[in-house]
Model the fold of this input.
Amino acid sequence: MPPGKGLAFLLAIALLAICVQNSKAQKNELKSMVYLSPKIPQHPGSVSKKYYYDIEFPKGHIAIKSFNAEVVDEAGDPVSLQETYLHHWITLRYYHRKGVEFNDNLGPDFIIAGNAGLCDHGLSQFFGLGSETRKTSTNIPDPYGIEVGNPLEVPAGYEEKWLFNIHAIDTRGTVDAMGCTECRCDLYNVTKDEYGQPLKPDYVGGIHCCYDGTQCKLKNGIKSIERNLYLRYTVKWVDWSDFIVPVQIFILDVTDPWQYTGIHDCLIEYDIEKSTTGVATHDFTSTKRSIMILPIEGDVVYAVAHQHIGGIGSALYGEDGRIICSSAPIYGHGKTAGDEAGYIVGRSTCYPEPGTMRIAKGEALTVESNYSNEKRHTGVMGHFYILIANTSLNFNEPVQIHEELKTPIIFWGVVVSGLAICASVFVVSQRRNQNEDGYVSIAT
Done:
């Protein structure tokens, strides 16, 4: 092959390879969508703790790669925790029988399709955070993903749907904003829970005192100014493929009594009593621990803890004492949304190198939650959210990397120009070869 023709051929092949590679990237593109929850009506001191069913959510058989959320106002501006405290938001999957209109008493027409455990009641969500939502990473590294929308898992006659439970407390004008966020019963003036059952005499604060429709005590003269807020949430996902390694979601609770009862009867929350020895010992740390065993073995892919104000860190230990994950709170120092002084605005997360942090079958895990007990705290939590891949990654197999496709227009200009140059070189070379073989070119 003549040199000119060979060069043109090689250039064409190289550019074609780039185009094919880019085309493959398009097929594995990381998709992203921003949604708004239904409106959350608020006024000073009010509490909203509603369930929102059939929320907007990506369709199809997909792998979730991240789920982020924050509270915004009607203009789309972030709302400060110093105005509305986001106690929690959770996203839960459920199956709804087709053709049946939704109501509060669906019975068998409504099936919760929660995570892998461990609590027998509650904490079944796939995703969820609290005040720390803005500065806590939820990204799931490649090649892992949370599998949803698999038609083989949906019961016949049902369809997969998603719901929110959003717990927001408006602390504007309240006599004790921090007390309102800790759901102190005396500030809400309640003696019964949301189901009308009398509260126990020793129950002084927690979620049973700040349920939907309750009111935290206001300062004198505060006007009731209403406004509508929203939870703005961003979901990133990829289409499901055999290259993705599925992970299972486990939420571990430090109040789980399994080690004593054999039952995962999680209390969800607990209280921190003020220390009577801290001044003398120079130690204001309250530590609570619980031991449990996962029903599977596998590699830890991601882990993060959840605590309330006063939390100073959580850890998850293996049976041999190794630290599987240590998750510390990030406290704000200012007034802007995402940096509110005195509030937990984020948490550190754990991303072990694939295959380096394995939990063995039957291994006893210890959850540890540490709080400051310099003063009393009510209704605190000590949860650990972990993602487990129960199939070890084969490092000899290719790992599919998912990135949001951002191909600049100039790239396609270079490709087109390159192909044009190749074509020109090829034509000139072809004509030269024809002349050398005794053929006369036709003048144009």
